[in-house]
Amino acid sequence: MPPKKKGGGGGKGGKKKSEGYVIDGVSTTEMTREQLEVFAHRLREEMEREREERNFFQLERDKLRTFWEITRQQLEENRAELRNKDREIEEAEERHQVEIKVYKQKVKHLLYEHQNNLSELKAESMVSLKMAQDDYNEQEMELLKDKRKLKYQHKEQELAHEDEIRAICMKHSEELNKVRATFEVEAREIEAKYEKRLTTQRNELNLRHRMELTEIEERKNKSRWKT
Fold this sequence. Notes:
Strand order of the largest sheet: 1-2
Strand content: under 5%
Number of domains: 1
Oligomer: single chain
Structural class: mainly alpha
Number of helices: 3
Number of strands: 2
Distance between the termini: 15 Å
Helix content: over 70%
Order of helices and strands: HEEHH
Largest sheet: 2 strands, antiparallel
């Protein structure tokens, strides 16, 4: 009878001992100080790694945002340059109109003052007008050529920037996939490791339980033999 009471007391003590958190299949009440320190160290390493990964992704996002701002600024500068070229064309047109007006007034004045030399003066005036017209046409062609060139460069820059943005996004996506795959592999390895440890501990507990049952059965047999 006394051994049974002792065993019952041991059972109650076992229930109190099993209370607590379970980490990797092992109760914290059953862990040694070294095991708890190892687990705490592992948690700190995982938290540090997650912090580094978060900082990495924030840095990549900031780089992409900076690149986008620079690209947007360059596009705005190109648009401003195109507007300036348009303004130059308009100003050249206005100057041309003023020059024509001046030449016309000069022709009228010359015709009024020199009726006898009308043909000669008219020819000279027409030559001046023709030269002015040719000069204007040449300037206009150059400005239009510059405008087309700027539009082409602007389009090329837009396409190049779009390609760079796509390349950055693809690289970012590939890096995310690599990190995710690495995490999954590590998670499976950790899970397999602790599943194996849990199986080993479970087998040890079953073996210990069978041994205890065998000892109890032997003690019962000895007790019966004595009686």
